[in-house]
TrEMBL record:
This is Serine hydroxymethyltransferase. GO terms for molecular function: glycine hydroxymethyltransferase activity; L-allo-threonine aldolase activity; methyltransferase activity. Keywords: Lyase, Methyltransferase, Pyridoxal phosphate, Transferase. The modification N6-(pyridoxal phosphate)lysine is found at residue 205. Residues 8-292 form the Aromatic amino acid beta-eliminating lyase/threonine aldolase domain. Belongs to the threonine aldolase family. It comes from Coprothermobacter proteolyticus (strain ATCC 35245 / DSM 5265 / OCM 4 / BT). Its EC number is 2.1.2.1. One of its GO terms (biological process) is L-threonine catabolic process. One of its GO terms (cellular component) is cytosol.
Length: 347
């Protein structure tokens, strides 16, 4: 349960740092990172690169900045970027690709966030036609947020990567929750990362660090990305205070994500038994999409009734709520939330 006294299922962004993280932050050895003098940042970046099997890494304040720095580094103004039609970089990042990088989005509809490789192939613009933008980048999202925490199948990632690279395109992976994908699939994050030229992943969310994300890739890419981070206002000074929590996130908090997945599955099974529109088979990680139509109430009414009973959740469509389990939600909390949902559907 959160420190607000609610069972907070809105997002795994609400996680609080562990006591070990707080102690590490208080004791962190720091320096000016813009000058390259923060030893804790350096340790975190080496660790992130090693875990992902990449040459180098860059600490950024947020996942959105990590995605946008990556897009900016991979593209030129006037280019076109292919991504799934409901991907975070297209849906939730305030049109930043157009504003910051001057590039155009080419959304490709997928199924729960998974694009068909043939659709990606068809979306690549013909070279040499002066009417067309240059397609330069494909963005994949793993796990997929609006896909309900869907894990991208590795063969799908590989197929799209092969198509992109054979056509001279780069691949960026929005891996905000890539460790959820690792825990759910048993496939190391580095194996997914192998098929992408750059990967962004969050240290916050399920890993519980209070601030920060990482971008990993080739050293020359990260060198250019570092300059773009500075341009966007992401050059930080004694940021080792934040990096100290990130190191613990990566070394201590990954395996415990299974607990979140188990609690999400518990929610899905129990809510389906109550008559809500839920498919437990689609719950792969820590997200549950719940159709509230069987209550006879609109989604915002259900959202408000949940809150008055101590449960926070967000509507993600006119009919559905998205429930997200995380470090602050126990199995007991999940059962209590189910009891609240039971009261609402029985009214």
């Amino acid at each position: 349960m959160s420190n607000l006294g609610f069972i907070d299922l809105r997002s795994d962004t609400v996680t609080l740092p562990t006591e070990e993280m707080r102690r590490a932050m208080a004791e962190a050895e720091v320096g000016d990172d813009v000058y390259g003098e923060d030893p804790t940042i350096q340790r975190l970046e080496r660790l992130a690169a090693e875990i992902m099997g990449k040459e180098a890494a860059l600490f950024v304040p947020s996942g959105t900045m990590g995605n946008q720095v990556s897009v900016m580094t991979h593209t030129q103004r006037g280019d076109e970027v292919i991504m799934e039609a409901e991907s975070h970089v297209y849906y939730y990042e305030v049109g930043a690709m157009a504003v910051l990088s001057g590039v155009q989005a080419r959304p490709v509809p997928g199924r729960r966030g998974v694009m068909d490789p043939d659709d990606v192939r068809r979306a690549i613009r013909e070279r040499g036609n002066i009417h067309f933008p240059r397609t330069s980048l494909v963005v994949l999202e793993n796990t997929h947020n609006r896909g309900g925490g869907k894990v991208l199948p590795l063969d799908n990632v590989k197929a799209i990567s092969d198509i992109a690279h054979s056509n001279g395109l780069s691949v960026h992976m929005d891996g905000a929750r890539i460790f959820n994908a690792q825990v759910a699939s048993g496939i190391p994050a580095s194996e997914y990362a192998k098929y992408a030229d750059s990967v962004m992943f969050c240290l916050s969310k399920g890993l519980c660090a209070p601030v920060g994300s990482m971008v990993v890739g080739r050293k020359d890419f990260i060198d250019r990305a570092r300059k773009n981070r500075k341009m966007l206002g992401g050059g930080m000074r004694q940021a080792g205070i934040l990096a100290a929590a990130g190191i613990i996130a990566l070394t201590k908090m990954v395996d415990r994500l299974q607990e979140d997945h188990d609690n999400a599955k518990l929610l899905a099974v129990k809510l389906q038994e109550l008559g809500y529109g839920v498919n437990p088979e689609e719950v792969e990680t820590n997200m549950v999409v719940v159709d509230v139509t069987p209550t006879g109430k609109d989604v915002h009414t259900v959202e408000k009734e949940l809150k008055t009973r101590g449960v926070l959740a967000n509507a993600n469509s006119p009919k559905t709520l998205r429930l997200v389990t995380h470090y602050g939600v126990t199995s007991d909390d999940a059962i209590k939330a189910v009891e609240v949902f039971a009261d609402i559907i029985r009214q």
